[in-house]
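Incident log, support desk, overnight shift.

02:14 A customer reports that sequence design results differ from what the structure should imply. Their input is reproduced verbatim below. On-call engineer (initials T.W.) acknowledged and began investigating.
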């Protein structure tokens, strides 16, 4: 458990980071636990703050903070960098997801929501983009299904469902799985939250899968949602995996 002193020091670190980011002029948004709290009012202890930016902007952010004396790290060139202070506190700089599906681009800023965090005006990634990224987190060590359900429950009536559907192409199966899980968790609420037109469309597409010939290639898309648990499929069971190409 963090002490009050540790909480205060961490809050001051985040506030200083946000002040510097705003001074830098580099476009950014907040995601992660901070965005989940703003959209759902659910709280949990968090080890960092997630800062989202376009892929072309993360080098600028790293160089900006390095010039200010912070330690910077390009943690994973596919999607993640970090900025540390001298006490080991850090923020994540996120510009994609590990499966290279949810790459941050200008549209994220078009849909971003204004909020006040640490007494300053900032942008949050949209609930649609937040759900989009969390749908793919189904690891043994971390599963974001509860976050997705809470976001749907608290924001579903105002979501841009057409846009979320667009984001989930061609992996619409995962969106359908969210509908079914939400129906299970909230049997009294799915009627008002989940649009019937989209549920019917997704169910029809699922039924159509049985009318198609089986794929020639044995593909396993499991690594898109869990990067470790499906390695046996690729390494021992002769399934092929593939990733989304980005430009």
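02:41 Re-run completed on a clean worker. Output:
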């Amino acid at each position: 458990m963090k002490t009050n002193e540790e909480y205060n020091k961490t809050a001051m670190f985040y506030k200083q980071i946000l002040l510097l980011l705003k001074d830098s002029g580099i476009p950014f948004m907040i995601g992660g636990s901070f965005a989940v709290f703003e959209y759902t009012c659910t709280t949990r202890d968090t080890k960092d703050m997630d800062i989202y930016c376009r892929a072309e902007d993360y080098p600028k952010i790293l160089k900006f903070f390095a010039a200010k004396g912070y330690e910077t790290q390009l943690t994973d060139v596919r999607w993640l960098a970090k900025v540390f202070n001298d006490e080991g506190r850090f923020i994540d700089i996120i510009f994609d997801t590990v499966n290279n599906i949810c790459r941050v681009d200008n549209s994220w800023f078009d849909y971003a929501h204004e909020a006040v965090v640490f007494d300053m005006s900032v942008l949050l990634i949209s609930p649609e983009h937040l759900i989009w990224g969390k749908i793919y987190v189904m690891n043994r060590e971390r599963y974001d299904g509860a976050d997705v359900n809470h976001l749907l429950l608290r924001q579903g009536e105002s979501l841009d469902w057409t846009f979320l559907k667009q984001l989930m192409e061609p992996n619409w199966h995962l969106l359908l799985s969210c509908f079914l899980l939400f129906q299970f968790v909230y049997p009294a609420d799915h009627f008002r939250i989940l649009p019937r037109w989209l549920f019917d469309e997704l169910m029809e597409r699922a039924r159509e899968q049985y009318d198609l010939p089986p794929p020639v290639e044995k593909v396993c898309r499991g690594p898109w949602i869990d990067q470790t648990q499906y390695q046996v499929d690729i390494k021992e069971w002769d399934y092929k995996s593939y990733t989304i190409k980005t430009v």
